[in-house]
Amino acid sequence: MKSKLYISILATGLLTLGCSKDYLETKPTEFISSGQIIDASDLNPDILEASLRGIYATMYQTGSGGTDLDHDDFGQKGYDIYGDMLSSDMALTGTTYGWYSDLSDMTSTVDYTNINNYKVWRFYYRIILSANLVIDGIGGNDASLETVAEQQTMGQAKAARAYAYFYLANYFSEGYEPSTPILPIHLDTEAPNQPLSTAEEVYNVIITDLIDAVELLEGFSRSAKHEINQDVARGLLAYAYAATGKDQEAAVVANKVITNGKFTLMDKAEVTGGFNDVNTNGWMWGVDITLDNNLDLVSWWGQIDLFTYSYSWAGDPKVIDVDLYAAIDSTDIRKFQFQGYFEALPENRDKTEDGTFIDVPVDINELYPTGKFYAPEREDGGQRSVITDYVYMRVAEMYLLHAETAAKSGDEPGARASLKTLLKERLDSDLETAYVDLLSGQALLDEIYLQTRIEFWGEGKSYLAMKRNKATITRGANHLSSAGASIPYNDDRLSFKIPQSEIQNNPNIN
Fold first, then answer.
1. Does pLDDT of 25 surpass 50?
2. For the whole prediction, is pTM greater than 0.85?
3. Domains of the chain
4. Where the protein is mainly located, per its record (predicted)?
5. Does residue 326 carry a pLDDT above 70?
6. Residue 381 C-alpha from the chain's centroid
């Protein structure tokens, strides 16, 4: 009975951890401590599994950014929207309710008192604190792990901590500059408030954690896709290497995920199939959303999908940037992700007499992703209780990340091969991929970057690619603000500011 009580307390504590404003307090008295975790895990090893479930639940839980009422506060997918809007690939074309309006016009990111900065900071440090509780409960960062279960738990916790630091490092810096102080590092629950560490120091932690995780998760067979396994840890490691310019290392790691044969690229039917099923083989990491999760309007689907009772349906549309849409070839199946669900169906695609597809004209303010993201019933505003799933990582990311980093490290044949493999699943025929063979140098990198933006629209990856490639973005005509403006990746408006609460509570940050 005592061990069951500990599990209940821990699971509840980790799901609601750190609701106070002092969200980097390392010993929150109202929640279970690392010492209690150690005691509890001695009584019942399942306590560590329960603590991991709390971390994974935080990733899709509403209010996990520290607010009770904000309808854009629902975990990782909420910040995927933030990233897509800041990269300008996602355009907000209406403000009936106003969610994301100060993010879309890039005013909230330059005001450290704005709640948007707090939510991003709060969410990822919450993951870090939860991961540190697990790591401390097993014995600390350098613990001698006696069982396979301990190794796998440690591997997941270190990967989760690295994932959170990786996103913080991207969102709270203007690009990777090794000597620039960006974040405080917390590697346990006992250390007091920390000063800002440099980007190089933060990424050293990220990469070390992920290298450890890859080793510790060898042979781990997860029970569901919301858990981090070795492939996901490798995917995160490839991203971390790429962000720091270690392109050869990134290419090697990404290729390991590609060649292990566990995942296949989503085909033409799947990429216009709704992106609503975690069992899709091309999804490496995601979560099966059920009625038990109690998600509704306050969710990713509640912000994006016209076929969910959503803000997009009710007056705050989120659509693809019109110039990015125009850059998609008319024979590319992804064009039909944004031309309405009817036109997106392959059997309804019109052709000319010579067999080429007709480009369907659409209003630039109505380029909804109704052919990419939709509840299966396809009833306008129909899905009230969300049961459509969340995707965090796809194997397609590894193909395009391999292409990018292989090209940057001098392996242009390998880069072209990965790019063509993906495009064969997107274009009408293999012959249409032949143009890739003529690309080299910057032209090849530009094409890989473009295809990355097209492939992952709405999935939060464009922001990461913008930072890696030091790109300048130009807003299309369907943006409500700064339409036509060209904005470099390191513009002050494209990264978040350390929030007022942290500055007030951490005496080491001026």
1. no
2. yes
3. 2-220+495-505 (1.25.40.390), 289-388 (no CATH)
4. membrane
5. yes
6. 25
